[in-house]
Amino acid sequence: MAQEKKYKLGDLEFDTEQEYREAAADLKRIKGLVDKYNVDDPEQAKKILASIKAHPDTFQSPYGMKFVVRLERSAGITSAPPADKKSDKTTEKQERKAEKEKKKQEKRLAKIKEANAKDSQKEKFQIFTPRNFAIGVVIVACVVVFSVFAPRLFKLNNNGDSNGDIRRTMVTAYANSQAELRMQLYTYYFNVVGQTEEEAQKDAQEGLSHYVMDLSDRTVSTMTDSEISDIYGRLVEGGDIQNNSFVEPSEITVLKDKLLAAGLSGNTGNGVEGETAVEAAINSMMDYQYRISQSLCYNYSLLGNSREEAQAYADEDMASMFGEVIYDYDMTIEDKQSYFDSFVKRGLIKDNQIVRFSADPTAYNLPELTPVIEASFFGEESAAYQCSMISYAPAASVFYEIHTGKKSGYLCFRNNGGNKDYIQVDEETSVTAQGDFFWVLGSQVQTGKWFYNQQNIGVLINGDKSSTIRYVYDLTY
């Protein structure tokens, strides 16, 4: 075992350097007192003792204690006889050993606390385990999926009774049309082509496969709102319904032409066996008017109108487009003939076929604004908007859906000016008001009259004609 280092100062021996330094410091203090005072003078000795009692930490070593005893003797103060030198050294050694053990114990306790703290820290960080990380990823993924699809689901299922009624009406009309077409196709294949009943049924069923869904044998009236919404969504995704209007597959149009040529129905498939060309054309026109009317009502409701207001606007547009609108489906052949003659004069029926309106609004002097416009109201700085047409038959009015950032709204131009109102653009130029103007974007609602102003569209709002809608041609893709 290595021998412990000892420290000596005069006749005293110390186990630690700290004890040695304390003794040396006491000797330095004693020397200073001896040089300054006569420690053998009782009065001066008493003064030094009083100062030492006021400061108990003045001396820390045996040298200091011995000096205190000397001062007491000089001052005539009786004190306990000092222990013999050997006993004093033994006591001091035991005290130092006990102090040393105490310090070792404190070090061990400190190490134990430090180890416990590290273990606790490790336990804290164990929450980031592979298992917990995987759970976190799943939770985040679920939140993201919900945030993306939940708004669409709520929008589909919670748009109000009006939208729900429209969806149910359109799904019902879709199913009824298919049921009638299926019967007509069976009649065609069985009576005209001469197929067997089984072959005619098979070919009629195959003809309906060109639709997105076959609802010909489904009872729509017993379906829940959820089922209707699901079917409507699939028809929209498949393209059979666009902007709340039916889009007939080209293959179905071909089949209906065959039926028409065979004298079984009009090209909409709403006729029955043996009906005349007049009846087929009028039945077709009633179906076409119904689709346009429903589309117009829906679009006008997007502008914030009530159902009654939207219907009133739609009725005005229908009268402008068709001249006569068929509201009573229970007609005599004479009534149908009268409607037929009226539509032929207006060019809406030709060669026993209805003539459909163009999907191009410019054909009716209405603006075509897709895909981007810039709008400014009351001379303020213009802003750009993405613009997409949502009209089924833009003849009497045209509707656009507009977007800017997260905001979306609707824009409508009506063709109901009638060349009656004139707007003075400048001192030399006046133009005709084309019709009503509607703009709805969040809380911003503007209504007025629109007019063509050179290459732009001007809007007259409460006598102010500084508002403009500008085409954007220089697009960068």
- For this entry, what is the oligomeric state of its chains? single chain
Binned strand content: 15-25%
Whole-number total of structural domains? 3
Portion of residues in helices? 40-55%
Output the helix-strand order.
Answer: EEHHHHHHHHEEHHHHEEEEEEEEEEEE
Main sheet: strand order: 7-8-9-10-13-14-15-16
* Rg (CA only): 51 Å
What is the average of the pLDDT values? 80
Largest sheet: 8 strands, antiparallel, barrel
What best-fitting shape do the alpha-carbon axes yield?
elongated
Given the helix and strand composition, which structural class is it? Answer: alpha+beta
The number of helical segments is: 12
DSSP strand count = 16
Low-confidence stretches: 82-87, 154-160, 266-274
Q: What's the end-to-end separation, in Å?
A: 88 Å
Write structural notes for this entry.
This protein has 477 residues and is α+β, with helices and mostly antiparallel strands. The protein folds into 3 domains: 7-82, no CATH class; 159-358, no CATH class; 362-471, no CATH class. The protein is 51% helix and 17% strand. It is built from 12 helices and 16 strands. The strands form 5 sheets. Strands 7-8-9-10-13-14-15-16 form an 8-stranded antiparallel barrel. The radius of gyration is 51 Å and the shape is elongated. The two termini are 88 Å apart.
